[in-house]
Amino acid sequence: MIVLKSKDELGIMREAGRIVAECHARIAERIAPGVTTLELDALVEAHIRARGAVPSFKGHQGFPASICSAPNDVICHGFPGSNPLREGDVVSIDLGALYKGYHGDSAWTYAVGRPQPALAALMAHGEESLRLGIAQAEAGRRVGDIGHAIDAFARAHGHGNVRQFTGHGVGRELWEEPSVPHYGRPGSGPRLKSGMVLAIEPMLTLGGDEAFVDEDGWTARTLDGSICVQYEHTVAITEDGPVVLTTL
């Protein structure tokens, strides 16, 4: 069931999103060669709790940490670890905050040091694909319009577009209906209505679309070992257009 949020609920979700955005700002300041994703996890958890919220991911279906860490060929759902990040790596950090009963959810990809040109282009295209998807998140359109905009842009630039994992609704639950694939036919899927809140999170690669999950049951990687980036915002559908909740 798709749950529509009231104006008051969207206000709470805006604050949850702001906490998430503050965490990403802190990560951007801290990330560098030699830093570990376990350090970033501790940084995020401390900030979320200091703001009167709870990490959305920690304990969710047994997940052990406050962030999902996805370096290089990892797509999503990776555990933070003690291996130092290296110059030239890219790492996607996905995190959420539960505030007054509502979640905010956002992921961003960070370069460690200066990225190679191909990686810099992939990152720019990943961020732009998210922007294009958000632009389609208007009342009266359909979920397929979001996915089509993302996929068409990814294909036009020669990138893989992971299909195994999708965006989703967000609210009192971290994952709600509807699913939001990052591909689709225009005019297909559930109709978008004012009050819906969606996590839109394209995952683009330098190679193919296919993925597999490690033996830990969580960490998803590209099948061909190509690098993946992920960009995600929590977005409210309103009568005045899409509103990104996970920003400062």
TrEMBL record:
Q: How is the cofactor bound?
A: Binds 2 divalent metal cations per subunit. Has a high-affinity and a low affinity metal-binding site. The true nature of the physiological cofactor is under debate. The enzyme is active with cobalt, zinc, manganese or divalent iron ions. Most likely, methionine aminopeptidases function as mononuclear Fe(2+)-metalloproteases under physiological conditions, and the catalytically relevant metal-binding site has been assigned to the histidine-containing high-affinity site.
Presence of keyword Transferase: no
Q: Which Gene3D superfamilies match?
A: Creatinase/methionine aminopeptidase superfamily
Source species, domain of life: Bacteria
List the InterPro entries.
Answer: Creatinase/aminopeptidase-like, Pept_M24, Pept_M24_MAP, Pept_M24A_MAP1
> EC number(s) per UniProt?
3.4.11.18
In its UniProt record, which GO terms are filed under biological process?
proteolysis
Q: Name one GO molecular function term.
A: initiator methionyl aminopeptidase activity
Per UniProt, a divalent metal cation 2 binds at 105, 168, 201, 232
Cofactor(s) recorded for this entry are:
Co(2+); Zn(2+); Mn(2+); Fe(2+)
Which residues are recorded as binding a divalent metal cation 1? 94, 105, 232
Write out the function statement from the record. Removes the N-terminal methionine from nascent proteins. The N-terminal methionine is often cleaved when the second residue in the primary sequence is small and uncharged (Met-Ala-, Cys, Gly, Pro, Ser, Thr, or Val). Requires deformylation of the N(alpha)-formylated initiator methionine before it can be hydrolyzed.
Subunit organization? Monomer.
UniProt-recorded name of the protein: Methionine aminopeptidase
- Lineage, uppermost ranks: Bacteria, Bacillati, Bacillota, Bacilli, Bacillales
> Which gene name belongs to this protein?
map
